[in-house]
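Task 17 of the worksheet. Students: predict the tertiary structure of the chain below and write it out as structure tokens. Keep your answer in the requested format; marks are given for formatting as well as content.
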Amino acid sequence: MAEALNVIMRWLHISSVVTLIGGILFGRLVVWPGLQPLAKDAREPLERAVAGRFRPLVLAAIGGLLISGLYNILSNPGHTPRYHMLLGLKMLLVLHVFAVSVLVTQPRNERRGRMMTGTLISGLVIIAISAYLRRIF
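Model answer:
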């Protein structure tokens, strides 16, 4: 039973990361440039509609990451100081991604493109740190 819970939590964590960072990546590199040639009065309603549709996914992904991440930390105690240092850095970046992802999905956001760029960079750094932590664990 414990092994099944571990698999479910790992799946929840990975699928939540894919949803959050993948959605930001798609939004920043595909949707945002695709909307820029449109006139402002045509572009803004589309931006609001896309952000509104992405918001529930962002909130669900954040919830999934909080639940599975807490489970992962509590079920795997006893790591090196280097591990905890990198985990702390990762958590700071995660807070950035969570906060800005929620702001990006606000209906009226003049800085949406810039915010998505920063969030995408932080998200990719988080994934790199996670891969390293998984390797040394």
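Marker's comment: The chain has a mean pLDDT of 95. The first helix runs from residue 2 to 35.
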